[in-house]
């Protein structure tokens, strides 16, 4: 599966988005708005690949409350779609 192993990079994000487009036949705002909410926790603008890098960097740090990495967030998002 696209989400197995390794870090979640911009290229892997593009692969997942392409897979979602093909599987769900959803595009544009209808696809990216929920993904942005799943990754960033809020609506907004900006490049999602930068959000991915920031979230994964935060997940690697030791906070009192752990930050979920991109893979975990995407898996939860996809599970909610099923």
Provide keyphrases for this structure.
82 residues; mainly alpha; 0% strand
Describe the fold and architecture.
- By secondary structure, this protein is mainly α.
- The protein has one domain.
- The protein is built from four helices and no strands.
- It is globular.
- The chain starts with 9 loop residues before the first helix and ends with a helix.
- The mean pLDDT is 84.
Question: What is the compact description of this entry?
Answer:
With about 80 residues, the protein is an all-alpha fold. The protein has one domain (about 10-80).
Summed up, the domain count is 1
Class inferred from helices and paired strands: mainly alpha
What Rg do the Cα atoms give? 12 Å
Secondary-structure element series: HHHH
- Largest sheet, described in full? none
Low-confidence segments, given as residue ranges, are: none
Percentage of β-strand residues: under 5%
List the helices and strands and how they pair.
Layout: H1 10-24, H2 29-40, H3 48-60, H4 70-81
Helix pairs in contact: 2-4
């Amino acid at each position: 599966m696209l989400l197995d192993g390794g870090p979640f990079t911009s290229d892997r994000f593009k692969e997942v988005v392409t897979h979602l487009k093909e599987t769900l036949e959803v595009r544009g705002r209808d696809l990216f708005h929920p993904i942005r909410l799943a990754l960033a926790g809020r609506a907004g603008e900006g490049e999602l690949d930068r959000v991915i890098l920031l979230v994964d960097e935060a997940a690697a740090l030791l906070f009192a409350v752990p930050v979920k990495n991109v893979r975990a967030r995407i898996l939860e998002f996809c599970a909610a779609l099923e």
